[in-house]
C-alpha cells in the first residue's frame, strides 16, 4: 500500500510570509486546500462541477500541527492520504515536507462531509471515484 495517494510540489512566495519572515499560519491551510482540490481533479472530480450539481464538500474540522516554519523560496511537497470515517466523513491526512532536507513542517488531519441542500450526503460519490482511480480508502478510527 502506498504511503500517500497524492503529492503536489509548491514554492513559498514572499507575500505569504509575515513580519517574522516565515509563512503565516493561515497560509498553510491554503496549501492543504489546494492539494485537496488538485487531488480531486486527478481522480476525475471537479469541485466546481459538484457545486453546480448542488453538492458541496464542507470542512468540518481542521487539525494542524505546526512543526517548523517555511520561509521565502522554500520548495515543499504537500502529501495527501485519503480515509473515511463512518458513512459521512472523509478524512484527508496531509503533510507538508520541505524538499531540501525532507523536514516535516506541518502535519494535518482535515475532516470534510458532503452536503446537498444543507443536509449531509453519504460519501459514496467520492469513494466510487477513488475506487475507479485504484485508491483504497481505509476506515479511520474515531479517537
Protein described:
- The chain is of the alpha+beta class and 143 residues long.
- Helices cover 23% and strands 39% of the residues.
- It contains 3 helices and 6 strands; from the N terminus they run βααβββββα.
- Strands 1, 2, 3, 4, 5 and 6 form a 6-stranded antiparallel beta sheet that branches.
- Strand 5 and strand 6 form a beta hairpin.
- The longest helix has 18 residues.
- The mean pLDDT is 93.
* Biggest β-sheet description: 6 strands, antiparallel
Number of strands: 6
Strand content: 35-45%
- Uncertain stretches of 5 or more adjacent residues: none
CATH classification class: Alpha Beta
Helix-strand sequence = EHHEEEEEH
Distance between the termini: 23 Å
Tell me the count of domains. Answer: 1
Helix content: 10-25%
**Helix-strand makeup class:** alpha+beta
Total helix count? 3
The backbone outline, from C-alpha atoms, is globular
Amino acid at each position: 500500500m502506498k504511503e500517500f495517494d497524492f503529492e503536489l510540489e509548491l514554492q513559498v512566495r514572499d507575500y505569504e510570509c509575515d513580519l517574522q519572515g516565515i509563512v503565516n499560519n493561515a497560509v498553510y491551510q491554503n496549501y492543504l486546500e489546494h492539494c485537496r482540490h488538485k487531488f480531486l481533479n486527478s481522480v476525475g472530480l471537479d469541485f466546481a462541477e459538484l457545486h453546480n450539481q448542488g453538492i458541496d464538500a464542507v470542512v468540518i474540522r481542521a487539525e494542524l500541527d505546526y512543526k517548523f516554519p517555511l520561509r521565502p523560496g522554500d520548495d515543499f511537497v504537500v502529501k495527501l492520504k485519503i480515509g473515511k470515517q463512518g458513512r459521512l466523513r472523509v478524512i484527508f491526512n496531509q503533510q507538508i515536507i520541505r524538499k531540501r532536507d525532507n523536514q516535516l513542517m506541518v502535519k494535518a488531519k482535515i475532516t470534510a462531509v458532503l452536503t446537498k441542500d444543507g443536509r449531509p450526503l453519504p460519501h459514496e460519490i467520492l469513494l466510487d471515484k477513488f475506487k475507479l482511480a485504484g485508491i483504497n480508502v481505509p476506515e479511520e478510527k474515531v479517537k
